[in-house]
Amino acid sequence: MDTAQGFWPARADDDLVRRVRAFVAETIVPAAHEIDERDLYPTEIVRQLASLGCNTICLPARYGGAGAPYTAAAAVCEEVGYGSAAVAISLITIFQAQTIIRLFGSDSLKDRYLPRFADGMIASYALTEASHGSDIRSLDTKARREGESWILDGEKSFITSGSEAEFFVILAETDRGVSAFAVPRASAGLTAYIGHNSATFGLRNGPHVNIRLEGVRLPLDHLIGQDGKGVRQAVTTLDYSRTLAAAISIGIARAAFDAALAHTRGRVAFDRTVIEFQGIQWYFADMLARIDAARLLVTRAAEALDAPDHADVLRYASAAKLVAAEVATEVASKAVQVCGAYGTMVNAPFNRFFRDAKTYEIGGGSTEVLRNTLAKYIVKQAAS
């Protein structure tokens, strides 16, 4: 049985999903173990995804994109996440960088950088600082205007995709507040290094890096959007990327389900296959129901992004990321359980599924932050 077609029908353009699934099966799945084991950034695979049009799927045609809806981007992230969450998170940081520029950047900035994503440009979204973590309302990295330039000084920490990124979106504080800047890696005064706590046990797409900025000089149009509005712009961008992150979690859950099902159908114990035991079947029933429910929520979140009024984007993006990440961890754990000793083996894929799933309960918006976001939404709506 083809589980992809049987259990997981496409929720976007059928031809797109078929092409991405074929690439995932042929190219990403065979490389997934090595990427994870060696903590490698999958540069060549990311370039190949760009050639398929995946990296720019939502960009307008004038910038080399397909102009597709975000339901298509979610489908791409789900399928790539099925093969390797590390590859998929490499796409997330690319989507983040191009989204903030597309939404808020000047025309000159869009024309300069957005077409380069179709050629496979690798990007990173550098918000985090060692002293502030998820709190980006005030920053130690500073930017000041000097004539016709911006000058940036400071340091960013624990930056995903930073090991190979050619382009960064960096938040820095000006005298008007936190602002966003487009920063090429080749900028004089920018250096990247691997810090002490650079490696994670999941979502391993190369070691996280620290970005040191020492008198980095940028043209004035490399300010993204309005001076002092960087927090709002970054949060808006996160609403997009959280939906895509939720889709990746669905891909992880599907991969764990399919691998466990294949094993239990072939494994014989007490004169019958493991899948024939009712208790094991109940595990799969629960997993299927939970994946289906989370997958529908992710689709609803993507549809909210595509809606003209963007109504309730924050609600559905936060809920999708919260639920999908928890479902992925639950499914990955049950997949280990139903596979018994095989599920715990280092050479089996289940430990990678579990580590990636658990890491995504923290990365890209922790479950606690997402619950706070939804709680504030509820209180605000109830008072209106």
TrEMBL record:
Enzyme class: hydrolase
Coiled coil regions, renumbered to chain: none
Substrates-to-products reaction catalysed: 3-sulfinopropanoyl-CoA + H2O = propanoyl-CoA + sulfite + H(+)
Cofactor(s) of this protein: FAD
Pfam families: Acyl-CoA_dh_1 (PF00441), Acyl-CoA_dh_M (PF02770), Acyl-CoA_dh_N (PF02771)
Domain Acyl-CoA dehydrogenase/oxidase N-terminal residues, every copy: 15-120
GO molecular function: acyl-CoA dehydrogenase activity; flavin adenine dinucleotide binding
Domain Acyl-CoA oxidase/dehydrogenase middle: residue ranges: 125-216
Origin: domain of life: Bacteria
Similarity remark: Belongs to the acyl-CoA dehydrogenase family.
Protein name: 3-sulfinopropanoyl-CoA desulfinase
Lineage: Bacteria, Pseudomonadati, Pseudomonadota, Alphaproteobacteria, Hyphomicrobiales
